[in-house]
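PROTOCOL LOG
Step 1. Enter all chains and additional molecules of the complex.
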Amino acid sequence: MFDRCIYFNTLALARQLERVWTEAFKPFDLTPPQGFMLRAVLAKPGLLQSELADELKIARATATRGLDGLEAKGLIERRPTKTDKRERGIAPTKEALALHDKLNAASGAVTDRLKGIFGETVFLGFVEQAKAVASKLE
Amino acid sequence: MFDRCIYFNTLALARQLERVWTEAFKPFDLTPPQGFMLRAVLAKPGLLQSELADELKIARATATRGLDGLEAKGLIERRPTKTDKRERGIAPTKEALALHDKLNAASGAVTDRLKGIFGETVFLGFVEQAKAVASKLE
DNA sequence: GTCATATAGTTGTATAGCTAATCAAATGGA
DNA sequence: TCCATTTGATTAGCTATACAACTATATGAC
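Step 2. Run joint prediction.
Step 3. Record the structure below.
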């Protein structure tokens, strides 16, 4: 019905893809947003919460909630910075560091699988277009 | 950071597009999911809830919640069908019918604006690709 | 005709996202 | 120095989404 609607179709696709990632992160007991947040923390330890929110393209308040969840699972720590008492840098715990390689491997496997399903050219082209379209909306 | 991730970029784009539609539906006091659900009801009055869920590509439980909201606003009615006492057909109220043209006009205006921003060729190509990719995941 | 199974819809419970409001700390102008 | 403004993070309150469990009804095998 909304066959020509970019919002409807983009959102529906995102929900389908979320299901794939839900499976992939299930062994780690992480939802996709949690998994991506943790991957970001592992890739760039020490980021401020606001910087993390920017990386993940979510609102700061959403980052607060997500980090609460990861903190409750013992996967991240908030550390006050030395220069500004309002800021908190985010560091992975050693439990999180122990997951790093497996999490990367599982993520790579999903991407490879999706590339296989869609074809690598289509996959890469689509991602580029999504970014190009998004950048025109800013 | 997740520059090559189809899920991350698709979801981020969907959230950006949602902001555009949020503005467009604000005059009707509808969120984007509510607006799209109402448009579906107006376009195909009498659909069963399960059929509506399929059209919108959401779970049945989500359709229940969304319809609760539209019903509370006096925009739709659930009507028992004659043949099966479990089923409910969804009909727009006359308040909703009164919005039909304006809602369509506002929706068309958003799509035209986005086509202008992205370029019509890119817009249509992207939507087609999103559908093609989604169909390979089913 | 009866009972097991399937189906339509709802409810319970959880996560994720947003905006607006708030709190606390930093900054800067006078 | 002091107060107004800005900024990082949190909290409050809301919507949307999903899955699983449930209720009520329908269907079909016998």
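Step 4. Note key features.
The domain at 6-137 of chain A is CATH 1.10.10.10 (Arc Repressor Mutant, subunit A).
Residues 15, 18-19, 22, 48-50, 60-61, 63-65, 68, 84-88 of chain A lie near DNA strand D (CB under 10 Å from a C1').
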